[in-house]
Amino acid sequence: MPDRARAPHVVVVDDKIAMAEMLADGLVDRGFSAVAVATGAQALAQIEAEPVDALVTDLRMPGMDGVELLAAARRAAPDLPVIVMTAYGAVDTAIESIRRGAYHYLTKPFKLDELIVYLSRALDEANLRRETRTLRRSLQGQAPRDRIVARSASMRAALDVIERVCGSDVPVLLTGPTGAGKGLLARHLHAESGRANGSFVTVNCAALPEPLLESELFGHAKGAFTGASTRRPGLFAEAEGGTLFLDEIGEMAPPLQAKLLDVIERRVVRPLGSVKELSVDVRIVAATHRDLRRRVAEGLFREDLLYRLDVVAVRVPPLRERREDIPELLERFLSEARTRHPSACVQRLSPACMTQLLDYPWPGNVRELAHTVERLVLLGRTPEAQPPDAALPHPVLADTPAPEFAGPVLTLRELQQRYVRWALVELGGNKTRAAERLGIDVKTLTKYLL
């Protein structure tokens, strides 16, 4: 009997149905789950309708023969092991089926034990390929602790919350501006959780139109819509036993939000065009740069879904709030960029360049910092990068309004900071001009910006 938690399900097809039933009954007696069918079309319908672990097919059959069935089955389920049965006079066709992807062929007549040997080997190899892919995805998705820079108090606070909830399965909502590192923290959460051996699957909810996103998330049956020529399991199924990261969840259309809520509450998915529901075991991590409560008030986001996602909320701070992390981030990004571009001239940053990078407000956050360092390495003409090489754009601090005497009373320190930032934006980001207009030196202006 196969040593597996679930009996492998095998479809046996032979136009002589008595032969197929005899083999199927023998497989069931030896611990398999098996079904016998008489045509290739029936076998393909089984493969497209439910999970099938292996196919055993005769080669010479009326209608869809074994070679045609092999091709159709592998389109529907690329990893499906296929064993073909052939009469002695059709060995050449059997060999051709091997070239087309069959695992093995058996010449009739053969013993049941012979079929079981090759079937078990094929199933073991298929499981090994799946486990290898899962491990590869897991390793790619993991963000080891030393990949995260958290010298600043704000980043340490975010990381502390992440690490306290790693061991649970509660949904986590990551909030913060674009480019701040929400995806990195999501991968760290997965890597440190009990689901680390499962898949970490990411989908950007803003990148796909509603119908396509629905199909990507929940899967679809064959013929569910124009172009759906095969069955697709969907990302929930792909993330089974692991983590599904829903990036930019605030951009999801309300009708799709309702379906997502149902999946979270009942832990089942129904692929498009299917009447069957499939249970799923997935941890949800969502991220957004939007104010979801404001989106709820505007009628753009479901309040009940927000409550389901916002079990644990983690605010990922913008880079301007974690300036203590910038030197270490610069060092890391410089090392990585030089590794990617070994022929580049730049080896280090000059003190003046470092000062410029430390003083810049980074509206694009960590992502902008990484791209800036990459540009420095690619375009620099000397071993030591100079300030002009950075070519930083003028900062646009959309969340730094001009000061106004309304609302709560501010401390003088906060009022000074807001005014200095507003003046800097008004003067195109030029610190020297801003300091002159404000009647202070550049060092004092920089201090007000921290």
Topology of this protein?
Blueprint: E1 9-13, H1 17-29, E2 33-37, H2 40-49, E3 54-58, H3 66-76, E4 82-86, H4 91-99, E5 104-107, H5 112-141, H6 153-165, E6 172-175, H7 182-191, E7 200-204, H8 210-218, H9 235-238, E8 243-247, H10 254-266, E9 268-269, E10 278-279, E11 283-288, H11 292-297, H12 303-309, E12 312-315, H13 326-340, E13 348-349, H14 351-359, H15 365-379, E14 384-385, H16 387-390, H17 412-426, H18 431-438, H19 442-449
Parallel strand pairs: 1-2, 1-3, 3-4, 4-5, 6-11, 6-12, 7-8, 8-11, 13-14
Antiparallel strand pairs: 9-10
Helix pairs in contact: 2-3, 13-15, 18-19
Helical proportion, percent range: 40-55%
Sheet-strand content, in percent, reads 5-15%
Please tell me what the overall shape is: elongated
Largest sheet data: 5 strands, parallel
The radius of gyration computed from the alpha-carbon positions, rounded to a whole number of angstroms, is: 30 Å
- Can you tell me the residue ranges where pLDDT is under 50 for at least 5 consecutive residues? 395-404
How many alpha or pi helices? 19
CATH names the topology of the largest domain as Rossmann fold
State mean pLDDT (0 to 100 scale).
84
The assigned structural class equals: alpha/beta
Short description:
The protein is an alpha/beta fold. About 45% of the residues lie in helices and about 10% in strands.
